[in-house]
Amino acid sequence: MSYVGIQLPFSLKFKRLVKRPILSFFANHIVNYPTPINLTYAWSFGFLAGVSLLIQIFTGLILSMHYSPNIDLAFSSVEHIMRNVNYGWWFRYTHANGASMFFIVVYAHILRGLYYGSYMAPRQLLWCSGVVILLLMMATAFMGYVLPWGQMSFWGATVITKMFSVIPFAGERIVEWLWGGFTVNGATLKRFYTMHFVLPFIIAGFVLLHLALLHKDGSNNPLGVDDAEMVPFYPYYFLKDIHALFLYLLVFSTLVHFYPNYLGHPVNYIPADPMRTPAHIVPEWYFLPYYAILRSIPDKVGGVVCMFGSILILFTVPYTNFSMIRSAHFRPVYKIFFWIFVADFFLLMWIGQMPMRNSYIFLGRYATAYYFIFFYFCFLFQGISRLYC
């Protein structure tokens, strides 16, 4: 029997089309991906983080075409982008503020995971891969902040890279390798530019790994149960993520077009001068909590260890929590500790931008102490109680 000339129904054509290898992969992992029916907008932060990464890569590629990684030309090349390149100001402001938006959604994504227990078995590797992405983001953002070669860029690079000198035996060698000499110079700028260009693509690779682990174990849900009713990702959560994306772009565009320098530092619009130290060296806002921890510890080695430890401690979260309940909805004591932790994080952020006075240092030590208490005492305590924490 011949079927020549017979028009197949659209539904049958679509079913045959999605059976092809590449299309079937996307259909299984995007369209038909089983998703808990009770997810909220808090689960859209992961999607928005991926969008932020794409924006940063795209705008970064455009800016790299006009930037000169030379200490004599870097600052003027940024001014050239702002003044002479068509829409250069827009790409530069989008890239600079895009880093802030990236950290906002990633921090929210991490706090959502801590609140709903997304780090618990069987998602330990999923959580750890996310922490690796956070570390790579921080390294990329720090190197990108050095590239404009303003006063804060130069002295921020000097202070942060010098911290590696506390590493026993190899510390000084590591600092000299980062600098490409004995001071922050042209070799430092070129190395940072190269690593800032390459690291986003490494981050993208880890994001793919993160997504693979997510689809392997499935998404957590607000109730923290594994037998929740499932629905296809499309159209339910596809439309929810699109709605979240429009709200994200609304905030992002408002920041870029009306408050482009609100999250920056005026000192960085002064060309780098090794002979003039700024009165108050302050990193970008998303590093302020860790900078406050560094300043709060009187010992240099102890401060560096605590600063890096405040990030690396996230790796231990899946293995120090012995609670049998995931969601904070059913852990009232943990919920109280969690919201105090969020307030403590913002307190450290505020302290990090304050001058070095005894009152701020004293307050910073208490805030630092609670930061680590939350991850150790609270998690161990909730493991002992098993039920209410």
UniProtKB/TrEMBL annotation:
Residues 13-223 form the Cytochrome b/b6 N-terminal region profile domain. Heme b b566 binds at H109, H210. One of its GO terms (cellular component) is respiratory chain complex III. This is Cytochrome b. Binds 2 heme groups non-covalently. Pfam families: Cytochrom_B_C, Cytochrome_B. It is a multi-pass membrane protein. Its main location: mitochondrion. Component of the ubiquinol-cytochrome c reductase complex (complex III or cytochrome b-c1 complex) that is part of the mitochondrial respiratory chain. The b-c1 complex mediates electron transfer from ubiquinol to cytochrome c. Contributes to the generation of a proton gradient across the mitochondrial membrane that is then used for ATP synthesis.
